[in-house]
């Protein structure tokens, strides 16, 4: 379809774009060398790169060259960050991953829009226009208001307000100019984009808003453009997310960032899923939160405080299921078997998370000590990578609670009852077992001076006695939910 002349032309344009981006980075270095503040040079380069990304559909006929440029800059920026090159970009925030997250977001965003549905190019362009203008403005306003960097908590309110204002205006302009939606729909979509993107920007740390803000905007606008989507329901979903986040925070089930993330998850369930997705998700969160209150972590200050879950824990337990939910907005309407496949992944991942949570919380109440999968010896209750009869029974009940909710709500399952229940239950238990294996062999475990085993360092800089220092409980939970969701998907593909 595309001949050699086009390939040669796009190659030349890609080389020209690469040279232009190099000049932009060089400008940042020159300005920094002349004494311009590092945050300012970083904002200039960030805005320039994001504007270039937004313009790529006008420069190239297909996304191939953009993929290549994004992958190249992701590698270059990761190298520069680790070696402390390019002070104009990295000096202001040396620990930020923003320069890597931005080209990474381009790779994912292309796969959500231009590559599979060219009519979504407006969403791609609009998302990076917001990132180019609203994000640096939030940083600048917060810095001027408090004399601190964007990462300072005191800069959050002023910066977030600036971000929200610009996002609302830019969203309205992009949607009105690029779609045929009536004004009412444009307004709802612009307000929704503002609420979602501002929430994402507020909770992201270390530059990861450069990844998640554009993807969140693309996801929302792509969903709004689906022919079968109830746009009034999307408005109700935003309200449901606000209510859920507020209630979860008020009940001390989630901390502030966790409540915002949980609210976004709830918005996705209501807006993209429906009852068949909401009920299993609600059963998992409600029962797991209730069980968590049965005991307190003795190492978590203040003593006796409610065991709030964090945003990291929300993602570790629900990230795979959440990804399965949002696939529905990414895959073009009418794709065969996608609804059933992603629902299987959703239920399998949540079943694995529920099995692990129930096994841990109820297993702690057992009078019998569990056995370590690593050594085969009895270990204290709550030790990672340990199993017991009581914990195993609890895992079965936990997985069954989610799977049962999915079957009873008559979601997009295979219709084969024995598989829908038995297969998904088995997938959840397999995920929980993978969680235990990872906890036993690769999760970092520390030992205090008194001989007590812990999953967190007893002192800053402490090295683990077992496992890998970078593998904590959240990583182990991701392994478990990934295996649970993956096993459910494989089973579906074999039966369907």
Q: Specify the structural class.
A: mainly alpha
Overall form: globular
Distance from N terminus to C terminus (CA atoms, Å) equals 34 Å
Quick one: biggest sheet?
2 strands, antiparallel
Q: How would you describe this protein?
A:
By secondary structure, the chain is mostly helical. The chain is built from 17 helices and 4 strands. The strands form 2 sheets. The chain has a two-stranded antiparallel sheet. The protein has a two-stranded antiparallel ribbon with strand order 3-4. A hairpin with a 5-residue loop joins strand 3 and strand 4. The longest helix is centred in the first third of the chain and has 30 residues. It is globular. 46% of the residues are buried.
Keywords:
496 residues, mainly alpha, two-stranded antiparallel ribbon, two-stranded antiparallel sheet, 17 helices, 2% strand, globular
Structural topology:
Blueprint: H1 4-33, H2 38-59, H3 64-83, H4 87-90, H5 98-112, H6 121-146, H7 156-178, H8 183-203, H9 209-224, H10 231-250, H11 256-273, H12 275-292, H13 311-330, H14 338-363, E1 371-372, E2 386-387, H15 389-408, H16 417-441, E3 446-447, E4 453-454, H17 473-495
Antiparallel strand pairs: 1-2, 3-4
């Amino acid at each position: 379809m595309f001949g050699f002349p086009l390939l040669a032309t796009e190659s030349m344009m890609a080389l020209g774009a690469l040279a232009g981006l190099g000049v932009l980075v060089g400008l940042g270095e020159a300005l920094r060398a002349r004494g311009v503040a590092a945050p300012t040079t970083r904002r200039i380069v960030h805005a320039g790169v994001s504007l270039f990304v937004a313009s790529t559909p006008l420069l190239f006929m297909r996304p191939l060259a953009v993929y290549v440029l994004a992958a190249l800059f992701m590698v270059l920026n990761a190298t520069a960050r680790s070696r402390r090159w390019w002070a104009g970009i990295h000096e202001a925030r040396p620990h930020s991953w923003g320069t890597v997250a931005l080209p990474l977001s381009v790779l994912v965003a292309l796969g959500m829009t231009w590559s599979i549905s060219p009519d979504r190019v407006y969403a791609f362009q609009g998302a990076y226009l917001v990132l180019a203008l609203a994000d640096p403005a939030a940083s600048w306003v917060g810095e001027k208001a408090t004399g601190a960097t964007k990462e300072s908590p005191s800069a959050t309110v002023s910066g977030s307000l600036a971000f929200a204002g610009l996002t609302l205006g830019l969203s309205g302009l992009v949607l009105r100019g690029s779609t045929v939606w009536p004004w009412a729909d444009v307004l709802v979509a612009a307000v929704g984009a503002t609420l979602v993107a501002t929430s994402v920007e507020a909770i992201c740390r270390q530059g990861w808003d450069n990844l998640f803000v554009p993807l969140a905007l693309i996801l929302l606008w792509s969903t709004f453009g689906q022919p079968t989507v109830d746009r009034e329901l999307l408005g109700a979903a935003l309200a449901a997310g606000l209510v859920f986040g507020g209630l979860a925070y008020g009940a001390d089930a989630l901390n502030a960032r966790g409540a915002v993330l949980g609210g976004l998850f709830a918005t996705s369930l209501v807006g993209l899923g429906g009852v068949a997705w909401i009920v299993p998700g609600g059963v998992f969160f409600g029962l797991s939160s209730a069980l968590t209150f049965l005991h307190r972590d003795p190492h978590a200050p203040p003593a006796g405080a409610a065991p709030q879950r964090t945003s990291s824990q929300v993602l570790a337990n629900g990230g795979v299921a959440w990804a399965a939910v949002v696939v529905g907005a990414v895959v073009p309407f009418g794709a065969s078997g996608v609804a059933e496949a992603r629902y299987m992944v959703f239920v399998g991942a949540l079943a694995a998370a529920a099995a692990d949570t129930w096994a841990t919380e109820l297993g702690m109440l057992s009078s019998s000590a569990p056995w370590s999968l690593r050594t085969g010896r009895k270990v204290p209750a709550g030790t990672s990578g340990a199993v017991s009869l009581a914990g195993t029974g609890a895992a079965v009940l936990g997985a069954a609670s989610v799977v049962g909710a999915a079957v009873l709500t008559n979601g997009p399952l295979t219709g084969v009852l024995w598989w829908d229940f038995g297969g998904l239950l088995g997938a959840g238990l397999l995920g929980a077992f993978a969680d235990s294996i990872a906890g036993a062999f690769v999760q970092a475990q520390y030992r205090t001076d008194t001989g007590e085993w812990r999953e967190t360092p007893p002192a800053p800089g402490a090295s683990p006695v077992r496992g890998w220092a970078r593998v904590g409980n959240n990583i182990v939970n991701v392994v478990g939910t990934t295996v649970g969701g993956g096993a459910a998907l494989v089973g579906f593909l074999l039966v369907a």
